[in-house]
Amino acid sequence: MDRRPAVDPHAATFADQGERAGSVRVASNAPSAAIRPIDSRADTLPSDGAFTAPAAPAQSIDPLLGRMLGHFRVDALIGHGGMGAVYRAWDTSLLRPVALKVLLTDSVNARNRFLREARSQAQLRHPNVVPIHYVGESEGVVFLVMDLVEGESLNDAIRREGRIAAERALDIVDAVASALAAGHQAGLIHRDVKPSNILLERSGRALLADFGLAKDIATPEPAPVEIDGPAPSLRNTALTRVGAIVGTPAYLAPEQATGGHVDHRADMYALGASLFEALTGAPPFDAPTPTAIVERQRTEVARSPRAIVGELHPSIEKLVLRLLEKSPDARFTSYDDLRSAIAQARVPALEPAPIVARAIAFGVDYAIFGTAGMIVAGGLLWAGLRIPPVPWAIAVLGASLVEWRLAGASLGKRLMRMRTADRYGLPPRFTSVLFRTFLKAAGPGFSWLATSMLPMLIGGALAAVATVVWLAGLAFAVGKQGLALHDRLARTRVVFGAAPPHTRSDRAR
């Protein structure tokens, strides 16, 4: 599923002193009005893979193309957003391709902050952060130089694949959480975490890019300013005037959207929104205008990811929804807690139990089941009652209770170190266990009832038919999937290993 909102909620936004709402300009000699608009969901895009010095393109539409900024030659525009444009450039000193980001505003405060925070990020050394090599200003153009990542952004991967496999999405989010933790320890809050700022190398490594909106923790928050005038509906436009909102609408934490106090937990919210989009192919909130998206971020509870992707594991949904809690206090206190939750949300690979082990466990369980039925039947006969269905029903109920209480591991399965699991790998609900036990015991039970309550000829014939059908259902377990008929109908399976540390409440949402 790949739903697209009426306007692009992923467009980067930026508001600061001296910048009019909706303006996108660069300083002095480098006007950006001629820069062609491209998809603002991909502010930092990968290179085309070339490692040799390309010829400088002719200066045509973009006045920066072909120019020298310091010892860097600007060759091609590869990304464009509300705060900056990213170019492929050539380092004439070290003879290598680099990514060069130019600030798109003539605000003095924005330029000073850009330089200050870029220099702070340059001190950040982490395997999941795109390193910055140079920060400077040339002929009024403020820019930074960073590695040119060979690969694609998470945003591009989502648009290409529709959605990302859960395990891969968790790997990416865990890597970004590690990068954010390092930034937080260095005193930085990113404030613009989103799929287009998460780069995926061809080797599979995920890197967090673009600390262009990063804020030093010690820097005071700007005073919030109310939105006035009609809501903007174009891409790459700032949502508000001076300092009211800094970030991207689809990923803004509620406290960030209101201009309130922002700490590392706002980055966690944005990371949760990015994970939601990676898993489902759509952001958690969309609306016709950026302002409406921000309002939904502030007031509405995020929809269930499993309502979009039904096979998503409940523990992963629980992680996503906690990251998207409206109150920062309801999210994770630290990145250590978040990464621990990511590890717990990972679904262990299920190893199907082979037919021989299942047959042994089945024999043990059936011996216990039959003995329990005989004891109950004997007790009823001693009391002068002869009601054949009652001992069988009591035995089914008792066996179901035991297996449910043992988290899907009946006595026979526990002996063989196996358990019954639902499609998510969790212990099945009691109703599933009861239905499964009923089906397993149906063949012998029906045969017993038929021979006990009907004439011998009719009862024997019905018992024979019931036994054949029952054995045929068990024979499905020999097939490629290893699922007997009772497992197929109850949507369960028998696997090796103990139950994961997920409670039944993980499936409650």
Supply the number of helical segments: 14
Q: What is the CATH level 1 assignment of the domain at 153-345?
A: Mainly Alpha
Walk across the major sheet and give the strand order: 1-2-3-4-6-5
How helix-rich are the residues, as a percent range? 25-40%
- Major β-sheet, in short? 6 strands, antiparallel
Strand-pairing-aware structural class: alpha+beta
Give the oligomeric state of the chains in this entry, treating copies of one chain as homo and distinct chains as hetero: single chain
Mean pLDDT: 76
Report the strand count.
13
Q: Which residues sit in consecutive blocks of at least 5 with pLDDT less than 50?
A: 1-60, 220-244, 504-509
Per CATH, the architecture of the domain at 153-345 is Orthogonal Bundle
- Written as H for each helix and E for each strand, in order along the chain, the element string is EEEEHEEEHHEEEEHHHHHHHHEHHHE
Portion of residues in beta strands equals 5-15%
CATH superfamily of the domain at 153-345: Transferase(Phosphotransferase) domain 1
CATH topology of the domain at 153-345: Transferase(Phosphotransferase), domain 1
